[in-house]
Fold this sequence. Notes:
mainly alpha
Amino acid sequence: VLAVFLAGAVLWWRGRSEIVEVRTVLARPGGGGVGTDRAVLHASGYVTARRKATVSAKVTGKVVEVLIEEGMKVKERQILARLDDSNIKTALDVAQAQLESTRLSLEETRAQLKQADLEFKRATDLAKGHITSQSELDKAESDAMTLRARLARQELDITTAQRQVTLWQQQMEDMVIRAPFDGVVTTKDAQPGEMI
């Protein structure tokens, strides 16, 4: 048994130590040589996009400018087209003017309130010394309270006007059509002058 075991170990050791010869070959292009138009592989099929989007405007409007052509590469957020925004620009200008007018009215009311508070303080001091009547004190107090209420309303008016301006600015942005992601334009379905 020991002899069989030793013979098997010797054979295994001999087979393991043999060097395997490796042949190397230089790879060359197939065909008749350089400049041959011989195709190596023929295949048919079609290419499909990984992502595809039909891009359109959020609002209905007249196209005034199209900045793309079929086959053109575009980047994300690149402007593709613009719609007519003349009416929205006018509304935005009106909203900004109303905001500015409300701010100026607020400043005017603050100045009037400061004066009314001083008048009320004077009337209070005079009423303590019985120099002025109660009705003058009541009128001064009423004037100051009226101006405080007007000031609070105008502060709310400013917030409303600011939101109105923001709304019109968003609508201006909606008149610009942008690419949702990087890609290639496959079709252009609108021309300047069309309603979309």
